From TrEMBL:
Keyword annotations: Lipid-binding, Signal, Transport
Family according to the record: Belongs to the plant LTP family.
Matches recorded under Pfam families: Tryp_alpha_amyl (PF00234)
Function, in words: Plant non-specific lipid-transfer proteins transfer phospholipids as well as galactolipids across membranes. May play a role in wax or cutin deposition in the cell walls of expanding epidermal cells and certain secretory tissues.
Name listed for the protein in its UniProt record: Non-specific lipid-transfer protein
Transport recorded as keyword: yes
Domain Bifunctional inhibitor/plant lipid transfer protein/seed storage helical positions: 27-112
UniProt-recorded Gene Ontology molecular function terms: lipid binding
Keyword Iron: no
Signal sequence residues: 1-24
GO aspect biological process, one term: lipid transport
InterPro entries: Bifun_inhib/LTP/seed_sf (IPR036312), Bifunc_inhib/LTP/seed_store (IPR016140), Plant_nsLTP (IPR000528)
Biological source species: Tetracentron sinense (Spur-leaf)
Amino acid sequence: MKGVGVCVLMVLAMAQLMVEPTNGFTCVDVAENLVQCVNYLTGADAKPVQGCCDGVKRVKGECTTTEEKRLACNCIKQAATRIHNIKDSAVTSLADACGAPLPFPVSTTFDCNSIP
């Protein structure tokens, strides 16, 4: 499972090059905060571990402007599409399962550019 986490970090690092960062908040930051969520997202864990939820809360705290919300949304979306065996229901429910709803829906099909 460590290999999956490393792959997620690498994918998000590459995605950083495709998504323009704002105020120093990058896809790498999102990846570092959410890497502990991989087991939950793939169904290996029934609920997210505390480290995952702490990361979700940190990402939520970083998303204050529209640009930051769109960036975080795109980073999460891009990473989710590259994780093998990801459960769409887990992606959608992650923030709520951590008690930290994000200011945008998390889904592999959501248009992040529609965030106001």
